[in-house]
Design a protein that fits this description.
The longest helix is centred in the last third of the chain and has 32 residues, at 235-266. This protein has a 5-stranded mixed β-sheet, sandwiched between helices. It has a 4-stranded antiparallel β-sheet with strand order 3-2-1-4, sandwiched between helices. Strands 10-16-11-15 form a 4-stranded mixed β-sheet, with helices on both faces. By secondary structure, it is α+β, with helices and mostly antiparallel strands. Strand 5 and strand 6 (134-140) form a beta hairpin. Helix content is 38%, strand content 24%. It has helices at residues 3-6, 10-17, 37-54, 59-70, 113-119, 169-194, 207-216, 235-266, 275-281, 321-332, and strands at 23-29, 79-85, 88-95, 103-107, 125-131, 134-140, 148-153, 200-205, 225-226, 270-272, 285-291, 301-305, 310-312, 317-320, 335-339, 350-354.
Length: 356
């Protein structure tokens, strides 16, 4: 996953390039389900401003951040990421996934790791809710409300099986099965026509229809993720189940990422530890792996010249190792995956897979 395609604009890259100017990063929950959501947001915003002062932010930086936080509405997503320096707000991003607690950081570069970790489970996907007559398609790029919803209705003739007992029962039952499969194929055709770039399909509904759908989707969309649901029930419950399926898929992919990372290190097509920094500087890294040390108070550091994308032995600015590595990854076009800090294979919180 490339942080540059998710959270940044050229402004953020310029932020890195301003010679390590003092930067404030703020994460705030903005959940609106509670009746006192507005009051809680005001309190957490004021607490974040005080935390920035305690962490040594300049008066100008505190004022810029405080003004931006005062304008935030609690209905803007589930959480807020704000990045600023004395030149202004570099990034204000509404997150669709909630965060458990506020987090503030003052340093020479932003603390992007919690945001990258939060969006890693996200991918373009279709949730498909089927019955014998067709399906409802929900296109999403993350959890929560769909970006777009469509309905595909197939033929309704012959979709009901007859009760057993008649001499022609087998013929009618076969006709019903064929009608169901025809409708499922029509759903697949519509999906591929309208949403050719999705990465995952999550399906629910009548078991036989889900089976037909699985038979006809292309290989690139396998395995099909299946959840229990009914087209005649509340679609919100189906989307909630799909959110859990996304989480489980992401957990499996993260385990596979760790395996690939260790295979790369073992075969000398990757590296771990501070050797990764020089590999980033030279543009050799395809995938950067960082351990999530964002909650640690004593983070390992190195010296950087962010304006030149260099790692130094002296001079420059001192920044947390993982934050600086993410900056270099953004500058050199490397993807970033955030792993648990204790993931096997990480050394000093870093590992990498080289470009082929």
């Amino acid at each position: 996953m490339s942080p540059g395609t998710i959270v940044t604009t050229q402004l953020l890259l310029e932020l890195y390039g301003r010679g390590g100017a003092q930067t404030a990063t703020v994460y705030l929950p903005t959940v609106s389900e509670r009746t006192d959501a507005e009051e809680r947001l005001i309190i957490t915003s004021k607490n974040a401003v005080r935390a920035l002062e305690t962490q040594g932010a300049s008066d100008a930086l505190v004022a810029i951040t405080a003004a931006a936080l005062a304008a935030v509405d609690h209905s803007d997503g589930m959480a807020l990421l704000l990045v600023a320096d004395e030149a202004g707000i570099a990034l204000q991003h509404s997150m669709v996934r909630p965060i458990s607690h506020p987090l503030t950081h003052v340093g020479p570069c932003p603390l992007l790791m919690p945001m990258i970790a939060a969006v890693q489970p996200d991918r373009k996907h279709l949730t498909v809710l089927l019955d014998r007559a067709g399906a409802d398609l929900y296109f999403r790029e993350s959890v929560g409300a769909p970006i777009e919803t469509k309905t595909v209705e197939g033929v309704r003739d012959d979709i009901q099986k007859v009760h057993p007992g008649g001499w022609s029962n087998h013929r009618f039952a076969q006709a019903a099965e064929e009608a169901w499969e025809k409708n499922a194929k029509q759903v697949v055709e519509q999906m591929l026509a309208d949403y050719s770039d999705v990465d995952q399909i999550i399906a629910g509904g009548e078991t036989r229809m889900v089976g037909f759908l699985d038979e006809h989707i292309p290989e690139r969309l396998r395995p099909l993720a299946v959840v229990e649901a009914s087209r005649h029930a509340d679609s919100d419950a189906f989307l909630d189940a799909a959110d859990l399926a996304l989480r489980d898929l992401a957990a499996g992919e993260l385990a596979e990422e760790i395996r690939v990372m260790n295979d790369s290190i073992g075969s000398d097509t990757g590296a771990a530890g501070q050797d990764v920094l020089q590999a980033l500087v030279s543009g050799r890294v395809a995938k950067l792996y960082v351990g999530n040390d964002s909650l640690e108070t004593d983070r390992m550091t190195a010296r950087f010249d962010f304006s030149q994308n260099q790692v130094l032995t002296s001079g420059g600015v001192e920044a947390p190792l993982t934050d600086g590595a993410i900056c270099l990854a953004m500058a050199t076009g490397a993807d970033v995956t955030v792993l648990p800090e204790t993931a096997r294979g990480l050394v000093d919180g870093l590992a990498a897979r080289y470009r082929y």
